Amino acid sequence: MKRQHWVIILSIIGIIAVSSATVVPLNNSPVDTEAFYYTYTVVNTYPHDEDAFTQGLVFEDSVLYEGTGHYGESSLRRIELETGNVTKLHLLSDNLFGEGITIFEDKIIQLTWQNNIGFVYNKSSFELLQTFEYPTEGWGITHNGSVLIMSDGTANLYFLDPETFQTVGQVEVHDKEPIDLLNELEYIDGMVYSNIWKEDLIVIIDPQTGQVSGWIDLTGINDSANQATSGVLNGIAYDPNEDRLFVTGKRWTQLYEIELVPTQ
After folding, report:
1. Which pTM was predicted?
2. What is the distance, to the nearest Å, from the Cα of residue 247 to the centroid of all Cα atoms in its chain?
3. Which of 52, 94, 179, 207 to pair with 191, CA 20 to 30 A apart?
C-alpha cells in the first residue's frame, strides 16, 4: 500500500510532523542528558584523492559519492571505494564553492557555501534536474528518509521538504551549551553524525531534540607532517548493508573505515 503523506501542525508543542513516521521540531527546550564518549579503531584504509577538498561524502550500493569545494575546484564525483578511482565527474562553475551532498531516492542533492543555491542531479547520469535556493550558508546535508537535514555552520540543524526545499523545522544542537560549526552530516540509525569544523571530533545528535548523545574523538587518525593547513577532518559516510562507517578529510590521501570504541 502506498504510504500517505501529510503535514500536521501541532502549535501547542511547537512541532511539525511530516508523514506518519517523522516528527520535525520547530524549536526545542534543552534537556541535558549525559553524552557517551568514543574513540576508534581503524578497520581498513582506502586511497583518497589528495587534491579533493572534501565537503560531502555518501556511500550507496557499494559506491562512494563525494562533493568537493573551493572556487575553481568544486565537483561532484562517483568513486570506486577500493581503488579511489573517480569513475564519474561533474565540475561546478568556477564561481561556485561546493559543499555537502546527500542521496535522496534517485537524486543527488548538493549545496554551495555562500552562493545560496543548491543542485539536484540524476544519481546515475549526474544530469542537472533543478536548482533551489536557501537563505543561509550551506555546509552539510543528509536526510532521514522523509525530510532533508541541513547545517549552515551555526549550532542549528534545518529540516527541508525534499520536494519544495522549504524549511519545515529546525533545532539548536546542544550539550549543556550550543555546539556550533556543525559541518558535514550523515544520518545513521536515527541519529545525525556531524563533523565540527577544524576539530578532530564527530558529534552524535538526536535530531528530535538537538541533544548531543555522543562524541567521537578521532585525534591522530591522519597525523602527517605533510598535511596541508586546510586538511581538516571532514567527511562521514555509512554503509547500512554491512554496518561500515567511513571518515576522511580535506586533501587527505586516505579514507578510513572505523569502528567506535566506548571510553566510558
Report:
1. 0.87
2. 11
3. 52
Each residue of 39-96: pLDDT tens digit? 999 999 999 999 999 999 999 999 999 999 999 999 999 999 999 999 999 999 999 9
- Rounded distance, CA 171 to CA 185, Å? 14
* CA neighbor of 57 nearest in space, from 147, 163, 188, 152: 188
Class of 7-262 in CATH = mainly beta
Percent of the chain with pLDDT over 70: 84
Q: HSE on the CB side for 228, CA within 13 Å?
A: 13
Nearest one of 78, 44, 39, 28 to 58, comparing CA atoms? 78
Q: Which residues contact 53 (CB under 8 A, 6 or more apart)?
A: 68, 69, 70, 73, 230, 250, 251
Residue 202's H or E segment, with its range, is strand 201-205
How do residues 195-240 score in pLDDT, each as one tens digit? 999 999 999 999 999 999 999 999 999 876 445 545 799 999 999 9
Q: Which residue matches cell numbers 501547542? A: 12
**Cβ neighbours of residue 169 closer than 8 Å, sequence gap 6 or more:** 15, 16, 24, 25, 26, 147, 158, 159
CA angle centred on 15, ends 10 and 16, rounded to 5°? 80
The DSSP-derived string for 132-151 is EE-SS----EEE-SSSEEEE
- With beta carbons less than 8 A apart as the criterion, state whether 246 and 240 touch: no
